[in-house]
Amino acid sequence: MKVLVTPRSYGKTDPQVFETLQNAGLEVVRNETGGILDKEGMKALLADCDGVVVGVDPMDAEVIASAPKLKAIAKYGVGVDNIDMDAAKARGIAVSRTVGANSEAVADYAMALIMAVARKAVAIDSHCRQGDWKKITTRDVSHATIGILGFGAIGRFVAKRAQGFNMTVLAHDPLWDEEYAVAHNIIRATPEDIYEKCDIISLHLPLLPETKNMIGAEQIAQMRPDAILVNTARGGIIDENALLDALEAGRIYGAGIDAFSEEPPSDQRWYALENVVLGSHCAASTAGASLNMGRMATANLLRDLGK
Fold this sequence. Notes:
Belongs to the D-isomer specific 2-hydroxyacid dehydrogenase family. By secondary structure, the chain is of the alpha/beta class.
């Protein structure tokens, strides 16, 4: 049996996962490009594979159809928006996720983006390196109101961290757990409440038809002029043209974006703005999270391949 491994960080902190696959009698094909594979790259490498450990590389119906032997897809992460689940189901291909493996790492990064945007840490660093030592006035984080859209494991960890800064936490999730909310002082809110009332808005939603471009010009217009918008979830949830227009106009205070609809983004406006902090979809890329995801994805793949 042959398996493809695409994530760049798979095995980086724990090379033993490759040994585990090989000891199970599997031939391992690696992504040697140093980046995210495109459809043609996936089709070429996956053609005669029985299984795949996949990150954010495309696994649409066309890619799946190009791999007639494919029996198992082990997602290195939790979001499956890059996988055509219907096509996998129709073929009887098992799809697994590494639920919980990176939740705290992503929550940490969301908080890092909040702090970096609010205190203009990246812009100040850049000015200092150019010999500009003037003081730049920024905005407070402590005692702010944060709105969390998507209140699963990551959203809850963000709330816990925010409360350490004495923030008031509003949250929205279609699957609301009232008992948890009451026990942890979380205020249930509609998305509209969050847009209108919150100093900071943090996104932790899957990319689904109902969440695609859910933050557009209309929603941004409802936000406070000193609002901070952070996305460590999925590209496509925000209408990026609308956000760029708002950032250029100073309509909101700033944004921290780790997930784009196109990675890296081709719109050059992103690279000229000082009121946005950019991430390379790296919120989950810590040594601990990579180790957890690697081991869990490996175990999931071996199980689904009957190894």
